[in-house]
Amino acid sequence: MSSVLAEYEAIHKELREQGFIRPDYPPNPSEILWNKKIMTLPRDELDKIKTFRLKRIVKWAWENIPFYRRFWKEKGFEPEMIKDWKDVVKMPILRKDELRKDLQQNPPFGTIFHPELAKRIRFVGATSGSTGLPTFQGWGALEMDYFQEGQARYLWTFAGVKPTVVYANYLNMSGFYSWGPPVVETAMWRCGATAIAGGGETFFSWKNRHMLIFKLWKVDVFATTPWLHRLIGEEAKLEGWDTPFKVLLLHGGAAAENTKKKLFSVHPNAELAINVWGTTDGHMAIEVPGSEGQLVVWEDMEIFDIVDPKTDEPVSEGERGELIATLLNHFTMPLIRYSLGDYVKNEFITDPDPKYGITHMRFAEPIPGRVEWMFRVRGKLLFPIYVEDAVNEIPDTTGMYNIIVYDNEMDKLKIRIETRKEFVDPQYEKQAKEILGSRLGINPDDVEIDWVKPGQTVWTGYKLQVFLDQRKKK
C-alpha cells in the first residue's frame, strides 16, 4: 500500500472513530438529532476543528497534488501562511476556468487528482457544462461516507426521515449527478427509510407512471425543485386527489415566501417545506425548521468566505458577494477556496438555533442565486427569486415564468408568464405589471409580459429555466 493511500485510509478511520461520521445506523427513532455530539459542538471546538482540518488539507494538497503546488506558487501562496481557519482568505481563489484548462491538458481528470486515489474512485460526478466544458469530481470512500453523513443529519433531524418513512428523490438520476442514487439514496438507508429514486428528469415523459407512484406508495417526504413540486400539486388537484407528501424538500433553487405558500396550497398534507441548497461537488446548506430562511452549514465539513467578484477581496459583514468554499475532507479531489458562483450576503448566525440547539453557523437569509444570474432593470439589481415571489401574487397564474435577459443593463423587465386565463384583458395585464413593479421596485411601465398557456414556459429537465440569457457572448 502506498503512503498516500495509507494516510487517506487512516484519516477516514479517524473520522469514524471520533464520531464525525456516525458508524451505527439507523439510530433509535426516539433520537431527535442524527449526530447530537457533532451537531451541538461548542463554538470554540468547531473553530479548532476547522483550523486543524484546513491546515491538513492544505498540507496534503501542497505535498501530493501537482495542480495546487503549481497554482499556489504562481500566486505567491505557501502553506505556512495558514495559522488559523480565518486565514483561508489569504489563499488564491480557484475558479472553474482553471480546472477546465487543466482537464483539457491532462484528461480525463487533470492534475488535481492524486493518481493513486484516482484508481479507487467510487463515483464520478460532473457539472452540467452549461457555462462551458463540464468539470468532473471524483468521490472516494472517505468523501462519499462523509457526504452521506451530512445528508443523514438533515434528513433525519429536519425532515423526519426514519424507519417506515417513504422518501422519493425526484432530482436528476443521470448525467453524473452526485445528489442522485449513489449518495442520497444511501443516506436514506442509513436512516432506515424506504427510498424511491424517481428521477425528476423523466416526469414529463412518464407523468402518469410517476403520479401513480405517489398515490400507491403514499410518499411521506418528497424531494425535487420548487417548480416541479408546484406542477405536481397542480396536476393532482386537476385529477381530483391530494398528494400525500408531509415534507417538501426544495432543491435546485431557493423558494421564495410566496412560493412556499403556493406549495402548501397545492399540497394540503404538507407540514414542512425546507430549502436545500447544494452543489454537485458536495457542498450543502439546509434551512432549519423553526428558523425559516436560515440555512445551516456543517462546519466540520467546509469553510465559506465571501468576496467581491470584481476584486476578489473579502466583503464586509452585511455586504453581498461571491461565495467561496473549501471542503475540509475531500482528499481524492481537493477543492480549496473554490468559487461556487453563488451571490450571498456575508451575514451568519452562530447562536444555537432555538429548536434543536445546533451550534453550526447559519446563513442569515436564503441563497438567492448565482452571480451570473444577477441582472439590472434601469439600475435596479434583481434576481429570479425576487421575481418569482412577485409572480406568485398574480392571480390565475401557475407560478411558472421565464425571465428574458437581453443585456447587462436593461430598460425593461421582459418576462414570460403562464396564465390560466383564456383571454388576457387590459385590466388583468395592468394589475400584473403593478404587482411586479411594486414588489421589485421598478416602474410598472418598464415591465413587458409575454403571456403563455400552462405548460408553455421553458424547462430543462426537472428545472424551470427561470433565466433565459439572450445576451451576446463576448
UniProtKB/TrEMBL annotation:
Major enzyme class: ligase
The entry's keywords: Ligase
An annotated Gene Ontology molecular function: ligase activity
Signal sequence region: none
Enzyme Commission number: 6.2.1.-
Regions annotated as coiled coil: none
Stretches assigned to the AMP-dependent ligase C-terminal domain: 379-471
Family annotation (Gene3D superfamilies): 3.30.300.30, N-terminal domain of ligase-like
PANTHER family the UniProt entry points to: BLR5969 PROTEIN
Record-given protein name: Acyl-CoA synthetase
